[in-house]
Write a structure and sequence with these properties.
The protein is an alpha+beta fold. It contains five helices and nine strands, in the order ααααββββββββαβ. The strands form two sheets. The protein has a five-stranded mixed β-sheet with strand order 3-2-1-9-4. InterPro entries: LD-transpeptidase (IPR050979), LD_TPept_cat_dom (IPR005490), PGBD-like_sf (IPR036365), PGBDSf (IPR036366), Transpep_catalytic_dom (IPR038063).
């Protein structure tokens, strides 16, 4: 009877020892699998365009390296899900960047922003660009901006700056809005810490980097014209 108990005890100890070895291995493998799964290895509908933008080999097939490069871009600009998939929002963001780059130092080449108003701040929703001009002379910019998302679009048309508050606090969104210059019913130029390419967009204001918002503050005054035109991609 005692011998039987001893044999049972030895078997239990061996089993426990094996379990102790297997469980950490299983957990480790499980963790690795989860990490791998977080990177989407599926080829996206905009694979070639995204590969070209990121200076990756353009073969139209998703690779692990492609996925990591796409993920890095998505993380930088707050694009979710951050899965490394070459989808519509990722490509739309990249395409907007390309259009902004193409604008160079002649953003009003097509003369869509009035040149007969003197000093005016122009906002092109299509390219997500803004600049200040005096007549046809460029005074500042163009700079990337982040305008209203679908449902809270930045309203188009000719407006005027009617109120400025350098340290404005939004009671609506409970956030700071430094260098606020209001031009249309609560919509304003102001700085933000978000990426200018962070989707889906603002609550209607024209977000800018702190440096650009400060420059606009120094260049514009109450009564200055603001012209908003175009249509933001995705709205």
């Amino acid at each position: 009877m005692r011998e039987s108990i001893r044999r049972t005890g030895r078997r239990a100890a061996v089993t426990a020892g094996l379990t102790a070895l297997v469980v950490p291995l299983t957990v480790a493998l499980g963790t690795g699998t989860a990490e791998a799964a977080s990177c989407n290895v599926t080829t996206g509908p905009y694979q070639k365009q995204v590969e070209k933008f990121l200076a990756r080999p353009v073969d139209g097939r998703q690779s692990s390296a492609d996925c990591k490069a796409i993920q890095a871009f998505q993380k930088k600009h707050g694009i979710t899900p951050t899965a490394g998939y070459a989808g519509e929002i990722t490509w739309r963001t990249m395409n907007t960047m390309l259009q902004q780059k193409a604008a160079g130092k002649n953003p009003n080449k097509d003369r869509k922003c009035p040149t007969n108003k003197g000093r005016i701040a122009c906002v092109d929703l299509t390219r997500q660009l803004s600049w200040i001009q005096d007549g046809a002379t460029l005074k500042y910019g163009p700079v990337p901006v982040r305008t209203g998302k679908d449902g809270t679009e930045t309203r188009t048309g000719l407006k005027k700056i009617y109120w400025r508050n350098i340290n404005h606090w939004s009671t609506l969104y409970n956030v700071a809005m430094p260098y606020s210059q209001f031009f249309d019913g609560g919509q304003a130029f102001h700085s933000t810490t978000k990426s200018m390419w962070n989707p889906p967009g603002s609550g209607g204001c024209v977000n800018m980097t702190s440096a650009d918002a400060k420059a606009y503050w120094n260049l514009l005054r109450n009564g200055d014209d603001v012209y908003v035109y175009g249509r933001k991609p995705g709205t």
